[in-house]
UniProtKB/TrEMBL annotation:
Keywords: Cell membrane, Membrane, Transmembrane, Transmembrane helix, Transport
Domain Major facilitator superfamily (MFS) profile as annotated: residue spans: 226-410
Localization per Swiss-Prot or TrEMBL: Cell membrane
UniProt name for this protein: Putative multidrug-efflux transporterc/MT1297
Organism in which the protein naturally occurs: Tritonibacter multivorans
SUPFAM superfamilies in the record: MFS general substrate transporter (SSF103473)
GO cellular component: plasma membrane
C-alpha cells in the first residue's frame, strides 16, 4: 500500500473524511431508530428515508455548478457547519417531545423529514466538493491509492464503528447519538479549514446556472467513455439497491436472523469495502484499468446469483463481501479516470451529472424490488418472491457485463 500521510493536505482531508463518515454511520442508524420511537406507522417512517435521499436527485446538477463557482475548501467547511446546526435542530426536536412514542407523532415526523432533507442537501454539496478537491491535494499518479484509502476509511467509520456506537448511545439517551454526530461535523470542518490548497486561478464569470450546467452536459455528451460509465453506473446501482432493499426481509424470513445477527451480516458486507479499498489499487496496477473493470462486473453478478440460489448465511455473507469488493474495484478504476480526464473548471459539474445518473436510479431500483416481490408472491410464494430480485439483479449485471465487453473502450 502506498503511504500518503506525509502529504499534509491529504492527511487532513483523510482525517476529516474519517470523522464525518463516523457521523454518517451514527446517523444511518439513529435517524430511522428515532423515527420508530416517534411513530409505528411504516409509511411515516419511510418518509424519513425518502427525505434523506431526495436531494441527490433534485440538487446534484445545481450542486455541480455551485462547486465550480466557489472555493471548494470553504464550501466543505460551510456545509459541515450547516450540518452541525441542523443536527442540533434534531436534538431540539427530541427535547420538545413529551414522551416516546409520541401520541400524535405526525408533526414530529414531518419536522424530522424537513431536517433530514436539509442535511441531505448539505451532504450533496459537501461530498461533491470533497471529491472534486482531491486532485488538488494529491498527485495524479497517486489518485488510485488515495481514493482507495479514502473509501476504506469511509467503510470502517461508516459501517463498522458508526452504527454500533449509535446503538449504544441511543440506548443511553435518545439525543446522545445526534450530539455525537454534531461534534463530528465540527471536527471535520476544523480539519478542512486547516488545509492549505493552491489557488484555482481567476474566477470564471458567473452566468445563469442552466448555461453553466449545459456546458457540463455538453462535455459529458462529447466524452463517450465517461458517458457510458455514468449510464452503466445508474443501471448497476439500480440492480444493487434491489439487493439491499430486500435484504432485511430476506435475512429475517429466509436466513432466520435476529437484529444483532443481521448487523453482523451487514458488517461482512462492509468488510468487502474495506479490503477492496486497500488492495484494489494494487489489482488495477497489476491488471490494468480495463481488465480490472471487466473483473468487477462478473463478481457483482456472481454476488447476486449466489444469494438467490443459496439462501444460507455461510453463502450470503461472503457473497455480500464479494459484491462490495467488486464495487470498490469499479470505483478505483472509474473515479481516478474521471478525475484525470475532466477539466478542473468543469469537474464539479460533470461529477454532479455523473452522480445524478448513478444516485438518481436508487429510488427506482428500490421501488422495482418492492413491486416485484408484491407481484410475485401470489404466484410464486413468499420465499421465491423474496429471492426473485436477486435473480433479476444478477441477470441485469450480466447484461451490463456483456455491454461493457463489447462497447466500452476505456
Amino acid at each position: 500500500m502506498v503511504h500518503l500521510f506525509y502529504i499534509r493536505n491529504f492527511r487532513l482531508l483523510f482525517s476529516a473524511t474519517a470523522v464525518s463518515n463516523l457521523g454518517d454511520g451514527i446517523s444511518a442508524l439513529a435517524f430511522p431508530w428515532l423515527a420508530t420511537l416517534i411513530t409505528r406507522d411504516p409509511l411515516l417512517i419511510s418518509l424519513v428515508a425518502v427525505a434523506t435521499r431526495l436531494p441527490w436527485l433534485l440538487f446534484s446538477i445545481p450542486a455541480g455548478v455551485w462547486t465550480d463557482r466557489v472555493d471548494r475548501q470553504r464550501l466543505m467547511v460551510q456545509a459541515d457547519l450547516v450540518r452541525l446546526a441542523l443536527t442540533m435542530g434534531v436534538v431540539a426536536l427530541i427535547l420538545t417531545a413529551p414522551v416516546f412514542p409520541v401520541e400524535n407523532g405526525t408533526p414530529y415526523i414531518l419536522g424530522l423529514c424537513g431536517l433530514a432533507f436539509l442535511l441531505g442537501s448539505a451532504e450533496v454539496l459537501r461530498d461533491n466538493a470533497a471529491q472534486t478537491a482531491l486532485p488538488t491535494v494529491i498527485d495524479k499518479d497517486k489518485l488510485e491509492a488515495a481514493n482507495g484509502q479514502m473509501w476504506s476509511v469511509e467503510q470502517v467509520m461508516g459501517s463498522f464503528v458508526g452504527p454500533p456506537l449509535a446503538g449504544l448511545l441511543i440506548a443511553y439517551a435518545v439525543p446522545a447519538p445526534f450530539l455525537m454526530d454534531a461534534a463530528t461535523f465540527a471536527i471535520a470542518a476544523l480539519l478542512v479549514w486547516a488545509m492549505r490548497l493552491p489557488a484555482r486561478g481567476p474566477k470564471p464569470q458567473h452566468r445563469q446556472w442552466m448555461v453553466e450546467a449545459r456546458e457540463g452536459i455538453s462535455w459529458l455528451r462529447g466524452h463517450r467513455v465517461i458517458l457510458q460509465l455514468a449510464l452503466m453506473l445508474g443501471c448497476m446501482n439500480a440492480m444493487t439497491i434491489m439487493v439491499l432493499t430486500m435484504l432485511p426481509l430476506f435475512g429475517q424470513e429466509l436466513l432466520g436472523l435476529n437484529a444483532a445477527q443481521y448487523g453482523l451480516l451487514v458488517t461482512a458486507e462492509a468488510a468487502g469495502g474495506v479490503v477492496g479499498g486497500l488492495i484494489c489499487p494494487w489489482i488495477v496496477t497489476q491488471m490494468g484499468a480495463r481488465r480490472a473493470l471487466m473483473l468487477s462486473l462478473p463478481l457483482m453478478m456472481a454476488s447476486s446469483i449466489l444469494i438467490a440460489l443459496f439462501p444460507v448465511v455461510w453463502v450470503v455473507a461472503p457473497a455480500l463481501f464479494i459484491g462490495l469488493f467488486a464495487g470498490l474495484l469499479w470505483n478505483v478504476v472509474t473515479v481516478p479516470y474521471r478525475q484525470r480526464h475532466i477539466p478542473d473548471a468543469l469537474l464539479g459539474r460533470v461529477n454532479s451529472l455523473y452522480r445524478f445518473f448513478g444516485w438518481g436510479m436508487l429510488p427506482v431500483g428500490a421501488l422495482m424490488a418492492g413491486a416485484m416481490v408484491s407481484w410475485a408472491e401470489p404466484h410464486l410464494g413468499r420465499e421465491l418472491a423474496l429471492r426473485l430480485p436477486y435473480f433479476v439483479s444478477g441477470g441485469g449485471m450480466a447484461l451490463i457485463w456483456g455491454y461493457a465487453s463489447l462497447r466500452l473502450k476505456i
